[in-house]
Amino acid sequence: MAIRPSALLLALALPGGCAAPPAADIRPPAVAVPRPGAAPSLQVALGADPLRPATLLQDQGRRRLWRWGEGVALQTEGPRVVATAGLGEVLVGTRVVGADPLAMPETLLAGEAETLRLVDLATAARDPAGMRFGLSIACRLRATAPEDRPGVIEVTEACRSAEGIGAHTNRFVLRRADAAALRTEQWIGPGLPLLATEP
Description:
By secondary structure, the protein is mainly beta.
């Protein structure tokens, strides 16, 4: 019987959540471009914390499972963090309705795009009373190609929801050739600061 990735993520989490630092304005530094064909790697930071390496546990192409810090697990799909475990609020799953513009960021240079994401949330204790499923988040994506950084596309994703999630803005710095993530800052749950990732 196949194990759902989100179930595997939750199983990896240790009991209890960890306190989240206050939200901070994260400014993208210059990032190293990974070598094509190099083994997957990921550096992660929550809020103003320094970047720390994550350990790759499972690699299924665009979908990867990582362990980070003390009992925290992350699942990424391309540049997006789509599930977490081990934090105070758990992102059980994320689904983009239709095609995800981040898979083809070149198209965003020609004009903005709108997406609808559905997310499932739970508390760290995984109490059924604290679980919420199918919460909708509407987002508008726009992209630029900075002249001082050839080969890079910067995407801003402004999101809003009327389901107790509020507004947030995700940022993605992507390699133009293959849409690989060079830097991301993204929402992973209410009350948590943005999660930053770099290869």
